[in-house]
Q: What sequence folds into this?
């Protein structure tokens, strides 16, 4: 069974600490890295891929430091960066066959694998089409296909659903769930729905640190009592939005139904609501009102 272990990993660029003393052990399953842009997710992924070296700490695979494994580690790794390189004049099939050859797959196997991956990501009908004609969503699917060419034991995906429409995003989630049966899948995103239903463990990353990790259910449960719903006039609703994070609002019959985040009951009439993962995101990554009475004073 594959195992990745990050032991007190830190990455510093001049005066900026991008990743700060991160330790985590990962085995087979889907790990969702959730955080705002600039939280350190991409830097952490690039270290996991061996592209960047930690300033301090160590990353090991099955007990061996990944730098020592060198080519053997790259052989079992699949990686989709935010912006992956491709040759615009290549067809999708030729591009995948070329990359398969770079990964030392025999020619016949490379062709079969390229076709298999095109079918997996729904591009088999456009395999002969030039990549420069692809839409953003098609490019992301091609990126996923190239990351899977070598049947990796570790699959690392950085913002993989950027540019995908809702139907493609659902298809992607189902595919990743199926692929995670016997490999480590690490998915970095700021889109909550990408990981809500498929991640075995979610890691909340803020300012380069893991501030919370666990199952979606456990993390959601951690903010019970901090999610509230209420009805307000449009004028009061505007003041509420300026005072605390609001995860949703809906106008109905001249009133506004709001769902908001607060450490305690923000004002009379608000009722506790069942928390969800979007609420978790707002709770941990937005400024949440510390004092209920302060919020009430500002909106009345």
A:
């Amino acid at each position: 069974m594959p195992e990745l272990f990050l032991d007190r990993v830190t990455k510093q660029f001049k005066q900026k600490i991008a990743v700060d003393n991160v330790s985590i052990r990962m085995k087979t399953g889907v790990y969702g890295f959730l955080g705002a842009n600039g939280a350190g997710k991409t830097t952490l992924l690039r270290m996991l891929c061996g592209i960047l070296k930690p300033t301090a700490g160590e990353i090991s695979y099955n007990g061996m430091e990944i730098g020592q494994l060198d080519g053997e580690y790259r052989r079992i790794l699949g990686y989709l960066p935010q912006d992956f390189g491709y040759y615009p004049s290549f067809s999708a099939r030729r591009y995948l066959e070329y990359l398969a050859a770079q990964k030392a797959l025999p020619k016949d196997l490379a062709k079969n694998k390229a076709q298999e991956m095109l079918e997996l990501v729904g591009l088999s009908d456009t395999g002969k089409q030039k990549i420069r004609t692809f839409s953003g969503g098609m490019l992301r699917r091609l990126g996923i296909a190239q990351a899977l060419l070598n049947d990796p034991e570790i699959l690392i995906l950085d913002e993989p659903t950027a540019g995908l429409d809702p139907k493609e995003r659902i298809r992607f989630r189902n595919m990743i769930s199926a692929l995670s049966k016997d490999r480590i899948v690490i998915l970095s995103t700021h889109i909550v729905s990408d990981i809500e239903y498929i991640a075995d463990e979610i890691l909340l990353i803020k300012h380069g640190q893991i501030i919370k990790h666990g199952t979606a259910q456990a993390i959601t449960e951690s903010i019970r009592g901090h999610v509230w719903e209420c009805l307000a006039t449009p004028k009061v609703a505007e003041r509420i939005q300026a005072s605390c994070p609001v995860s949703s609002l809906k106008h109905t019959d001249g009133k506004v139904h709001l769902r908001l985040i607060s450490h305690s009951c923000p004002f009379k009439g608000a009722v506790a609501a069942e928390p969800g993962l979007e609420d978790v995101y707002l709770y941990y990554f937005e400024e949440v009102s510390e004092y209920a009475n302060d919020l009430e004073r500002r909106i009345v």
